[in-house]
Amino acid sequence: MAESALVIEQIEKYFPVPQTGVRAFLNPFAPLTHPALLGISFQVGGGEVAGLIGANGSGKSTLLRILATLLVPTRGHASVAGYDVERQASQVRAQLGFHSATDSGFYSRLTARENLNFFAAMNNLFAAEAALRLEELTELMGMGGFLGSQVRTLSTGQVHRLGLARAMIHRPSVLLLDEPTRSLDPMAAAEFRRFLKSQLVDRHKTTVLFASHTLAEVEQLADRVILLDKGRLVACDSPRALRDATGSTTLEEALERLTLPGSRAEVLS
Amino acid sequence: MKTHRTLRKVLAFFKRDVAIARSYRMAFALEILEAFFGVATFYYLSRFVSNDRLARVLPAGSDYFAFALVGFAFFDYLTVSLSAFDNSIMEARQNGTLEAMLVSETPLTMILIASAAYPFVLLALRTVIYLAWGAALFHFPIRGANWLGAAIILIVSILAFAGLGVISTSYLLLFKRGNPARWLIVGASSLLGGIMYPVSVLPGPLQWLARLIPVTYSLEGMRQALLAGAGFAELWPSVRALLLFSLVLLPLSSVTFGWALRQTKITGTLTQL
User: Fold this and answer.
1) Is A110 an interface residue toward B (CB < 8 Å)?
2) Domain count, chain B
3) How far is A244 from chain B (nearest CA, A)?
4) Scanning A6, A11, A47, A164, which has the fewest C-beta atoms within 10 Å of its C-beta?
């Protein structure tokens, strides 16, 4: 494996239990008792594509947010491109692009171009550099038809493409994607997967860690699959190795065998 | 290079806000009209309340209209300082851009400062419109004013007010809404700061309390500079007090904000509404 672009060591994350009413008023800093991640460790090599899978609430988004410096871990360490996510957060942010399917956050009354120019400036790109990058991304993401339109007039899929372009505008060496094709139609999703594999990974050696519920997508893109279950790491291997280890013909079957109560011990033994 | 990048970011925020404001075409025209109604109201109110007793407590060379107009126009710098930072966080949370900004190479402190550029420029423009309406139609005295002195008072006032604004935003970060810090600062400043009446008409203990809030020095200095044309020696006590407030409030606000930001990253509530 190439030198690790992502290192996750014994990461634990606990949240406070949400409180309401008088209880919340009297105790604004509730103890961190609700577990989200329980001692996760793995590494992703430079230029590798790793797929995070697991049921809702398994900790995929929390892990991505820790790596994106939006959350701090309760215990453990993580680094992106050699920079610690807690102590060197600004260096980490210079290395990564982050996009979540739930993130449709744009200035609705600005055009797609104005939005991307704004976020290019936020990522320290100068005007000429930003214009060039915008041109590249427009072609790659097929945004030419709507770059001059106000975001409020765009379709969900178009806004999603804009979000992906925003995450990639500063040529990050590491890309964190939370369900990257969730709002895309099948054609656009296939196009995006081709773009991710051929342009970002094969050509620019970008490291990608993505969470997805679409197992066919994971199988197609990921060199390695990281399976989380209730905050714990259950498996971390290539799709083929997981299928072989579980005696399954599909990744879906392997996932079932690894996460159903009782069956995990049998598989791992 | 770093300064260039910082300025480019401030400019990017400014251009963003101008572009958004431009998309609401009538807003600025209405603002000019609103300023006229505000100034006219003060003028007729001042004609109604002017008497010998009032003239004795007002600063030399000013009438009630000029006194109240300066108080009203420059008190806005406190309210905008308190709301600009809060609003930038609230709006970014509401339109979902906060997360995207936070994973960019721009720290949240910079996002706050740069977001305040447009509201302050707009406010400066509004102040000019207020004073221009006052001078053009209602005899507001602008000829003898010490404009440079007024600019200095304004800059040190904004620094002190920004410290209060960031402390108020720290509360918002932690508790999301219902900001008592802002309510307390605006309430105390409205009562004690001498916006519509001189501090000297307040009872003794309240006059003493008035000396503990920056807006009192800000309005005093501003009135001296604009209405009495006071020189730098006369303005120095106000400038010195405001600088002292800045020296205490800015580092305090920075520590408070850093702590609040870390708390939200621990609890996972940074981008929650």
Assistant:
1) yes
2) 1
3) 38
4) A47
* Confidence (pLDDT) at A86: 92
CATH number assigned to the domain comprising residue A10: 3.40.50.300
Structural domain range at position B184: 2-267
Q: What is the mean pLDDT of residues B90-105?
A: 86
* Chain B from 241 to 270: CB within 8 A of any A CB: 262-263, 265-268, 270
Question: Is A26 inside any structural domain?
Answer: yes
Phi, psi for B134 (deg, rounded to 5): -60, -45
- Chain A interface includes B105 (CB < 8 A): yes
Q: Please tell me the distance from the alpha carbon of residue A72 to that of residue A77, in angstroms, as a whole number.
A: 10
| CB-CB contact of A177 with A167 (8 Å) | yes
The answer to whether A24 contacts chain B (CB < 8 Å) is: no
Whether B170 maps to a domain, the answer reads: yes
- Within 13 A of B270's CA, how many CA atoms are on the CB side? 26
Domain count, chain A: 1
**Of A225 and B133, which is predicted with more confidence?**
A225
Assigned domain for A135 exists: no
Which of A16, A105, A114 is facing B19, going by the closest CB pair? A114
Q: Which chain B residues contact residue A100 at CB under 8 A?
A: 99
* Interface touch B5/A124, C-beta < 8 Å: yes
Task: Please report which confidence band the pLDDT of residue A265 belongs to, taking 50, 70 and 90 as the band edges.
Answer: very low
Residue A242 lies in a domain: no
In a domain, A104, yes or no: no
Domain assignment present for B167: yes
- Which range marks the domain in which residue A31 is found? 4-99+173-237
DSSP reduced 3-state for A74:
coil
Mean pLDDT of A115-130: 91
The answer, for A132 touching chain B at a CB cutoff of 8 Å, is no
For residue A137, give the amino acid letter.
L
Q: Which residue has the higher pLDDT, A221 or A204?
A: A221
User: What is the pLDDT averaged over residues A227-255?
Assistant: 88
Average pLDDT over residues A62-82: 94
Per CB-CB distance under 8 Å, the chain B contacts of A66 are none
Question: What is the sign, positive or negative, of the torsion defined by CA atoms of B124, B126, B132, B138?
Answer: negative
**Partners of residue A122 in chain B, C-beta under 8 Å:** 9, 12, 101, 104-106
Place of tokens 């009872």: B203
